[in-house]
Amino acid sequence: MRLPVADRRAVWAHSRRLLADHRRALAGVVALQALAALASLAVPWMLGSLVDSVREGTTREAVAQVGVLLAVAILVQTVFAGVGQRQAMVLGEGIFAQLREQFLHAVTHLPLSTVERAGTGDLLGRTTNDVDRVQWVVRFGVPRVLVTSVTILLTLLAAFAASPWAAVGLLAGVPLLVASARWYLPRATPAYLKASEAYAAINGVMTETVEHAATVDQLSLGPRRRSRLTEALREAWYWEDRTLYLRAVLFVGMVLGYAVPAAVLVVYGAWLVSQGLATVGAVAAVTLYSLQVRTSIGELMFWIDEVQVASASLARILGVNLVEPDRQATGETPSDDLITAREVGYAYRPGHEVLHGVSLDLVPGERLAIVGPSGAGKSTLGRMLAGIHPPAGGAVTVGGVRLVDLPEEQLRSEVALVTQEHHVFVGTIADNLRLARESASAEEMRHALASVDALAWVDALEDGMLTAVGSGGLILTPAQAQQLALARLVLLDPHTLVLDEATSLLDPRAARHLEQSLSAVLAGRTVVAIAHRLHTAHDADRVAVMEDGRIVELGPHEELVGHGGEYAALWQSWQQD
Ligand code: ADP
């Protein structure tokens, strides 16, 4: 399953809306560039009238005067073009910033199940390659398209003003330009979309292989991964080749299209002069315009191509918005803190149920351990209890309200899932903490750090909580990173925690040190511990034994051992080990 891709119309509508949001800056840029273009258009016009006046006889002073005017025109053009270009870049950055914020919002609100099903490659491709492509066009393309379009339009007007007859010759290349663009455009976007998909596939295969290198080695999957990569590369190669061919045809049409008018004008202009329909100076001016406009047309065509690439990327970026949310807040409020699972079922893939009608009532303040063989569905149940995924059947409720009917923020203040995977986000320590609660005050953050035993080392840093961490900043030890994650929990302050110990990455020394921080966080809360080691279960108030997606036993440790069932057997074999 892939993430959706927006259609052409949606991309257009969104681009128009983005431009409309920056209407004033846009108008300013167009005005500045128009002034610059006007100044540059004065040059051929003055040269043309110079030709005519020299033919008719003129003075040295008059020629010198025109020279000075030419210099002034060039200077004016340079200044307006410079300022205009600067404003255009500012505009590009503004548009891109808005786009990036919207995208980030969409990405961070994607339902987790969608992300997992689509694989990391697709999303990673969109957040890297596709964003880069759009960024390049928004930063440089949008400004240049504005500049060149204004220039071309004004050049045509100036040519018509100089001599309408001669200006008709300028249009000689238009049919070729139109024909090549019409051939190219409908073929380009789908091809570029395919190319983007192919790159995303390469990304996916590579990152998944590298991230799970140990698994790949152990299961001798190397050759299979390599052939997957070769396949992805072949696909990307094919589409690169295809788009290169499209570009090659386009460029031939274009180069002819803008070389033709100059040639036509020389012959056609001579005829116009012989018929007395235009002066030599006017023909000279229009011919100079045709040469001057060539670079603008070339650049515009270049950007039209890049815009095709970018619109394919934009379609993929906007596609992320099309993912249906997996939940909708209903506005109901829980009547109490009781979390209850009723007949909960779940399947990661349709038809492969991994939970079968699990029911469970959490007792406020208790510590419940979930044990069972690997693959029994413990982590999955944990995720249901924390509201990470909506269950496929049945419901998990808090105070009578389904977890997935709560707004995300409120859900996290009821129940949170704690894994031992900890990610340090690029930013300051305070930024990392505020992820839990945006409105947290410095005092509250210090309190949170203190309660996980982290305030001392944070205060010892030169910039304290304002120290930049993560890649590019201070690199935290795994234990420090874990403490930040725990401090976030303190700020969230949920009454129930689901602790998944599945991915214990910490070395035992760090773990011992952290245990204190952790128990400070757990105190006074209901805790569901997914125990992959049985000693956790021994200390719990109740133990739930899972097997094949069902809870088969539930009760206090002693009682279950006395009962002589599954748990007693597990416990015995574990003790023998
Ligand atoms: P446990 O935590 O008891 O080891 P899990 O809840 O992780 O069990 O897994 C239960 C079943 O669901 C297993 O068969 C596992 O292969 C499958 N499963 C777990 N996570 C995923 C996933 N993201 N996509 C597909 N299947 C999954």
How would you name the CATH homologous superfamily of the largest domain? ABC transporter type 1, transmembrane domain
Structure class: alpha/beta
As a percent range, the share of strand residues is 5-15%
| End-to-end CA span | 43 Å
Give a nutshell description of this structure.
The chain has 577 residues and is of the alpha/beta class.
Overview of this protein structure:
By secondary structure, this protein is of the alpha/beta class. It has two domains: 8-322, ABC transporter type 1, transmembrane domain (ABC transporter transmembrane region fold); 339-576, Rossmann fold (3-Layer(aba) Sandwich), CATH 3.40.50. 66% of the residues lie in helices and 11% in strands. The protein is built from 20 helices and twelve strands. It has helices at residues 8-21, 23-56, 60-108, 112-118, 120-162, 164-170, 174-211, 213-218, 222-274, 280-319, 378-385, 408-414, 429-434, 442-451, 455-460, 478-492, 508-522, 534-538, 557-563, 566-576; strands at 339-349, 352-361, 367-371, 393-398, 401-402, 415-419, 427-428, 468-469, 496-500, 526-530, 542-547, 550-555. The strands form three sheets. It has a six-stranded mixed beta sheet, sandwiched between helices. Strands 2-1-4-5 form a four-stranded antiparallel beta sheet, with helices on one face. A two-stranded antiparallel sheet has the order 7-8. Helix 17 (508-522) links the parallel strand 9 and strand 10. The chain is elongated and about 120 Å long. The two termini are 43 Å apart. The model has no long low-confidence stretch (mean pLDDT 88). Bound molecules: adenosine-5'-diphosphate (ADP). Adenosine-5'-diphosphate (ADP) binds at residues 116, 348, 354, 372, 374-380.
